[in-house]
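Archive entry. Fields below.
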Amino acid sequence: MTERRQRQNSLLRGSLALLAAAAIYEAMARSGYFAPALLPTLPTVARALVSSIADGTMIEHAAFTLYRVMFGFALSVVVGLPLGILMARFQRVEHFFLPLVSALMPIPSFALVPLFMLWFGIGNLTTILIVFYAATFPMMFNTWSGVRSVNPLWLRAAGAMGADEHKLFWKVIIPGASPFIITGMRQAFLRAWIAVVGAEMIAASDWGLGWVIFDAKEFLNTDIMLASLVVIGGIGFVFERFVFGSLERATVMRWGMVRAAKG
Amino acid sequence: MQDAITIGVTEPEVRSQSSERLRLIARNIFPFAVVGTIWEIIAWAGVFPHRLFPTLEEVAASFVRLTVTGILPHHTIETLIRLLSGFALASILGVTIGVLMGRSRRAEDIFLPLVSIGAPIPGLAYAPLFLLWFGLGNISAVLLVGFVAAFPIIFNSWTGVKAVKEIWIRSAQSMGADDRRLFRYVILPGALPYILTGLRLGLAQAWRILVAVEMLAAVPWGLGWLIFGARKFLNTDVMMAGIVVIAIIGLTLEKFVFQKIENYTVVRWGMITS
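PREDICTED_STRUCTURE:
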């Protein structure tokens, strides 16, 4: 009873805080102290959002961004996952790739944008490669540590029960490492999502959510900027909460491994 | 006699140790040598236009030239100042809000919705907005870096304060600790590993975002700007030199700041394992 009351209180206070923040913003926007072009009122932002969704431009921008981020992310999984497994299973591979990876990893992906622009031009290829670069390392690292941290007891037990290499790999190692792999995917996507927005801003093409924000700045269309900010936040939130959340529920939680995922 | 014996025992050991170290160094250098050789072959073969794909000697030469003339150090120092001031802003803001959220239910209710709405938006998406509001240049760059880096710090400080064991607080209270002492001697040390993790994540975040912000905010000096400006004149060798400096700073942060912090906390408190 008190628990519920407390939760209701929290909800009430939370929504009050949001309302208050919105009201302060609205008052600032309407006060006329600041240029309306820089601080549009909330209804203006909402109208810009609705109209840009209605005429399809915002959807097209989002589709382009999603295409780039998915392509780059898929590429990073295709490369990072096997490489991580190989690094964990074979010492030679680890000895070769680990120094390279540790040297490349501290370079923020955005530092490479100008270079990639020179090499690959402006547009999809550069953006996808930047996303790929940003997402591969977390993918690889988590897979690597996941495979290495598979309990050796399980391996020996499976071996003693007569599992061959093939079975050992698919039935023990992969499920054992899966919490780490899924964490890796999550981190990789988060990185990819940040990278795609930045890359679109710098390596401007003509579509994409990052580009539209940056382009709107030139014309002082602050309402469009805020509207695309809402869309970017929304998509990121949906992926984090629903896509990866349900992936986690469908795999590691079902296998009863979620404790390992938090470690 | 005894000396001779000890020398006889230790000498091979020393040698094997040093050869072990040599092997380790060689093993670490080998992959770079392979990649460097491939790079050189491609550059010399002229597969790509020479301006876009300089040889490693040219990169090294422009690195040395820029360092000697003082251009590269100037860019580096400006970038580091921006990083540190943005990070300082983020730490003050983040730790204060996070600890407040952990201590008071009211603050938690107020801040949590705001923070969880702001956090999933990639920091760079705010960049144009900040540029419009605060103008081009340093103020926007530092504010943006501080704002973006504050989120992980807030979340971790909040978790840390909440993770302090209830029983420690109660036993300290029953032993007569007042609020100030409770905070100073129980809550702060208990939450410190989390807070430090948050600071580490925040610094990494700040570093990643800063390079891009420097490209967008048109600051007069800074490594991001150096790379971005060099693109206009097709100075690929200058770009590569800038990227090398960025990599060195990143590596230094990783090896000498983050890992030190982590080792310190792990060793000292034995509280976090990852």
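CURATOR_NOTE: Residues 10 and 16 of chain A are 10 Å apart (CA to CA).
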